[in-house]
Predict the structure.
Amino acid sequence: MSVVSGIERAKRHGSANTLATLYILQARQRARPSEISLDLGVHASSVTRQIRGLEAAGHVEIVADPADGRSCFVSLTDSGRDEIARLTQIGLARFALFVDDWEAEDVRTFARLLSKFEHSKAEVGKRQMPHGGRRWQRKEDGK
């Protein structure tokens, strides 16, 4: 619960959501808001607000999707890459404080288990995620 409350506190301050969104854009090069929403596992309206804030800060660029006038592409700017570096450094420094008195092997074990946990979480998320489209557009149970 302590870890979860720390994550929630970081989310309320915006840095966790900001970093997650920026990492997605770094990995994808460019993405539609709907793709970011799926990757984060959050409602599209949350991503829209997040992207607007990132655009206002100069961290992302938004361009219309030429193939779909209802959508757009979001990509990182140099400022966004700098923000990733800054937030990553803050996170690493904080993590280093948490494990400062740990044995090196304990840190490696912890990192391995965290990675395993994230993989398991992603797999469960994939199995539980609705299969695209709007609710009324999906055929359920062969209907």
